[in-house]
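Dear colleagues,

As part of the handover before I leave the project, I'm documenting each prediction I ran so the next person doesn't have to rerun anything. This entry is a single chain, and its sequence is reproduced below.
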Amino acid sequence: MASNESDVALMQCVRNGDKDAFRELVERHQQAVINVIYRSIGDAWEAEDLAQHVFVQVYRSAPRYKPTAKFTTWLYTIVHNTVLNEHRRRARHAAESLDALAESEDAEQPGRQMADAGAADPSEEAAKRELQEKIQEAIGRLPGLQRTAVILCRYEGLSYEEIAQVLRCSVSAVKSLLHRARETLKDELRGSY
């Protein structure tokens, strides 16, 4: 709770034009925002660009910000809307996004760690990496709301209530989205592990 209160206080300073407060907010939340976007679109370079867009929106929205929910819930709502807009843009420009997707497969993915030299079994590590990649790809193929719900729940640890606020739906709808997503993922990943 202290983190949320601190975020709210920083956001109120941003509203008053404090650029240092904005910089601190960005530093606190930038990696989480990039990770959510990356898990949603699968393109590391684009995730960083879209994260910058998210924080521009945060800065522009500062005068209208009201702490009616947790700061991160408000932030992830902006992230969700940004990702939705990106998916719409990609749908309009399918050929361009296919080229970008091919290029992103060659790019280094954020958050990946190099294998420890003392790792027990390289083939086991490779199998784990391959499974994680399959899971990431399967999550990427989920319908938009299911994908966002899974990412916010699994990777960001948001509660059903917080996810419902981000997606602007009921808690029971979130539970339904997550249930359908889990069933789809189980079906797709059967035999992968």
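Residues 43 and 103 are 9 Å apart (CA to CA). Residues 19-41 form the longest helix (23 residues).

All the best with the project,
I.
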